[in-house]
Design brief:
Layout (H helix, E strand, L loop, with lengths): L2 H31 L2 E3 L5 E3 L3 H7 L2 H32 L7 H9 L6 H11 L6 H10 L7 H4 L1 H25 L4 H9 L4 H29 L3 H6 L13 H11 L3 H31 L1
Antiparallel strand pairs: 1-2
Helix pairs in contact: 1-13, 3-8, 3-10, 3-12, 4-8, 8-10, 9-10, 10-13, 12-13
Length: about 290
C-alpha cells in the first residue's frame, strides 16, 4: 500500500484508537463484568446470569424502575405540552420582544444541575422555603408542608420543568418556523379554527421534531441521577421515593462495591433505551410510509 492509500488510515487512527480505548473496550468489559460478582475493585468471581436473575427479583430495583417510569411519564405528559404551548405563543406573528422571551425561557437550561438542585432545595424547605412562604401568603398554605418528604416526585418534576421546558421549547419553535404559511392561511380562509389548523396543518409539519424531542426526553429522564441525589442529600428520600435506576446503579457499584451487579443494571437500562429508540424509529418510518 502506497503513501496515498495509507493516508486515510493515518488520519483515522486517532479516532479509531480513542473509540477502542474509551468506547469499545469499556462496553466489552462492562458486558463481561455484568456476569461477575465483585467484592471491591480487585476481587471477583464468575456467576454467569445470576446478576440478571437476582435483578428480576430485587424489590429495590423494581422500586427504582417504578419511580423512574413515573418520572418519565409525568415529564412527557406535563413538560412537553407546556414546551409546545410556549413555542406556539412565541411563534405568534407580530409578537414584540420575541428574542427576550426566548432568552428568558431558554436560560434555565444553561444552568448546571448541581445549582438547580441546591436552588430548589432552598425553595422546597419547610417553613423557610420560598414556595411554602409564597403559597402561605397567597392562599394560607401550611408552612410546614414537606415537599422533599411526602412529595418527592412532584418536587423533581417541578425542578426539571423549570430547567428543561425552555430547552424543548426551542426545538418546537424551530420546527414551527418551517410550517408552510400558505397552508395555514388557506385553512384559515376556509374557516378552520385555531385547533383545527393545528391538527391539520401545524402538527403534521412538526411531528418529526416532536418525536425527536420525545425520544430525547425519555432518554434523559431514564438517566436521572444528579438532581435527586443532591436535592435529597445523597440519598433516595423517605421510603425510597426518590430512588432512580441510575441512583441504584451508583449505590450498588460504588457504595456496596458490587460492580458486576451495577453493570447488569446498566445493561438492562441500555436495552430499555435502545428499545425506546427502535420504537420511535419504527413509528417515524410508519408515518412516512403512511
Amino acid at each position: 500500500m502506497g503513501s496515498a492509500g495509507a493516508a486515510p488510515w493515518v488520519l483515522l487512527a486517532p479516532f479509531l484508537v480513542l473509540s477502542v480505548v474509551f468506547t469499545a473496550w469499556p462496553l466489552a468489559r462492562s458486558a463481561t463484568l455484568s456476569l461477575e460478582q465483585t467484592f471491591g475493585p480487585g476481587a471477583s468471581r464468575w456467576v454467569g446470569l445470576e446478576n440478571y436473575r437476582h435483578l428480576l427479583s430485587d424489590p429495590l430495583f423494581w422500586k427504582a424502575a417504578g419511580n423512574t417510569c413515573l418520572y418519565v411519564c409525568t415529564t412527557l405528559v406535563v413538560q412537553l405540552p407546556l414546551s409546545l404551548g410556549c413555542a406556539l405563543l412565541l411563534n405568534r406573528p407580530g409578537l414584540r420582544g420575541r428574542a427576550v422571551y426566548r432568552l428568558v425561557f431558554f436560560s434555565p437550561a444553561l444552568v448546571g444541575v448541581v445549582f438547580v438542585a441546591m436552588m430548589f432545595g432552598v425553595i422546597f424547605e419547610k417553613r423557610t422555603g420560598l414556595l411554602n412562604q409564597a403559597l402561605h401568603a397567597a392562599v394560607g398554605w401550611d408552612l410546614e408542608f414537606a415537599w422533599l418528604q411526602g412529595w418527592v416526585m412532584t418536587s423533581l418534576v417541578i425542578a426539571t420543568l423549570w430547567q428543561y421546558m425552555g430547552y424543548n421549547m426551542i426545538y418546537f419553535l424551530a420546527a414551527l418556523q418551517n410550517v408552510p404559511k400558505d397552508l395555514s392561511e388557506a385553512a384559515e380562509i376556509d374557516g378552520a379554527g385555531a385547533a383545527r389548523r393545528f391538527a391539520a396543518v401545524v402538527w403534521p409539519a412538526i411531528r418529526p421534531v416532536g418525536g425527536f424531542v420525545v425520544l430525547l426526553s425519555v432518554i434523559g429522564s431514564f438517566q436521572l441521577f444528579e438532581l435527586p441525589w443532591i436535592l435529597l442529600n445523597a440519598g433516595a428520600g423517605p421510603d425510597g421515593r426518590g430512588l432512580t435506576i441510575v441512583m441504584y446503579l451508583y449505590q450498588q457499584g460504588f457504595e456496596a462495591g458490587d460492580l458486576g451487579y451495577a453493570s447488569a443494571i446498566g445493561w438492562v437500562l441500555a436495552l430499555v433505551l435502545v428499545g425506546c429508540a427502535a420504537l420511535q424509529r419504527r413509528l417515524a418510518r410508519e408515518e412516512v410510509t403512511a
